[in-house]
Amino acid sequence: MKTAGRIHPVYAEMERTVFDRMSALAREHGAINLGQGFPDGPPPPALIEAAGRALREKSNQYPPGPGLMELREAICGYYARRQGLALLAEQVTVTSGATEALAAAVFAFVKPGDEVILFQPAYDAYAPLVRRAGGIPVSIPLAPPHFRYRAEALASAITPQTRALMFNDPLNPAGTVASHEELAMMARACVEHDLIAICDEVWEDVRFDRVPHRSLMGFPGMAERTVKIGSAGKIFGLTGWKIGWMIADGHLATALARAHQFLTFATAVPLQWAVAEGLLLPDDVLEGQRTEWRAARERLKAGLAQAGYEVLPNAATWFLTVDLAASGIALTDRAFSERAVVEAGVASVPISALYEGEDVPEHLVRFCFTKPADVLDDAVERLARFRRELTG
């Protein structure tokens, strides 16, 4: 069978994801993996116990396609308590991770020729998903070190073909958080131009500024035009469970559920039971985990700074960003990451891989800090030695 030309061009031209590639290099060279984002510490024991109990005592057959009603209700209660959102279970569809939710949202609302605004740096699934739906990604680059959203840039990107925007807050990989003024500006633009906002809010409860997360869904005129996407993997540090969800109103919710049913249909039911219990846990359980992550963040930040690395401001996510140029390192981010994993034994992610187009910053690298103290200390020692070798 001749396969040339049979592969969809989105996939035929696609490079291997940077996260998978850097993790593979870390395994190959026995390096410390500060590239791909996942915590090494134990999750809340109550969730592990709940999952085991569900395997033994609950059904292991197909759950309802939109998700267990108990989980959907727990998600609504969680957001009512944490963010003041009044939601109904009928608005929630449980997905196999947030990436599936992103795919369902794009496939539900983006038609061939539609333009979709992306803010860069962006999770590297955004643009391929838009292209696979026949849409056209329109990228707005955000400038380091603060990665602020500008009304002028957004206004100039909107055309009569613009149908949606994809918005990640808190922002991975920068670890920055949109201000109230930026959120309000974005909401006004969506209402004025009748745009759907696909809001990737997976980092909503991984914040270290002690400011409650505010969803774009809660702004005037946005409830009927927002898809809010969340992730139990990020909330509880259980990335391998792949339990996510998407929330929308009315006909948007119906379209999302229809798209979901032909992607995965349903998600592991024992883990749904466990997450439902987890979302009902007292807030201090989550805060204990956040305290550990906050301490790891400060440890890596201080260690990198002492080693001569310039660390950018960070208020959220599991990542710190280093400015190589300001650290006296003349390498591009890709060259640094490729060499560091081999020569220093530490994997990172070059942030230029999360941009498209021209004027891409090539001096920023991302490190994951949710690792044990001894691992972070070892990584800092290796990176300090590597920097000394590079800078003489």
Describe the structure.
- With 392 residues, the chain is of the alpha/beta class.
- It folds into 2 domains: 9-43 and 284-391, Alpha-Beta Complex (Aspartate Aminotransferase, domain 1); 45-281, 3-Layer(aba) Sandwich (Aspartate Aminotransferase, domain 2).
- The protein has 14 helices and 13 strands.
- The chain has helices spanning 9-12, 18-29, 45-57, 69-83, 98-109, 126-132, 151-157, 180-193, 232-236, 250-261, 269-278, 283-306, 333-344, 373-391, and strands at residues 32-33, 92-95, 115-120, 136-141, 162-168, 196-200, 226-231, 244-247, 310-311, 319-323, 346-347, 349-350, 364-368.
- A 7-stranded mixed sheet has the order 2-8-7-6-5-3-4, with helices on both faces. A 4-stranded antiparallel sheet has the order 9-10-13-12. A two-stranded parallel ribbon has the order 1-11.
- Helix 5 runs parallel beside helix 6.
- The chain is globular, with a radius of gyration of 21 Å.
- The N and C termini lie far apart (56 Å).
- The mean pLDDT is 95.
Question: What is the gist of this entry?
Answer:
The chain is α/β, with parallel strands linked by helices and 392 residues long. 42% of the residues lie in helices and 14% in strands. It is built from 14 helices and 13 strands.
Strand segment count: 13
| Amount of beta strand | 5-15%
Globally, the shape reads globular
Q: Please, how many helices?
A: 14
Could you report the average pLDDT, rounded to the nearest whole number? 95
Kindly report the CATH topology of the largest domain: Aspartate Aminotransferase, domain 2
CATH class label of the largest domain: Alpha Beta
Summarize the main sheet: 7 strands, mixed
Secondary-structure content class: alpha/beta
CATH homology group of the largest domain: Type I PLP-dependent aspartate aminotransferase-like (Major domain)
Order of strands, widest sheet: 2-8-7-6-5-3-4
In helices, the fraction of residues equals 40-55%
Count of the separate structural domains: 2
Q: Give the SSE order as H and E letters.
A: HHEHHEHEHEHEHEEHEHHHEEHEEEH
Poorly predicted tracts of residues: none
Q: Whole-number radius of gyration?
A: 21 Å
CATH architecture of the largest domain: 3-Layer(aba) Sandwich
Q: Kindly report how far apart the N and C termini lie.
A: 56 Å
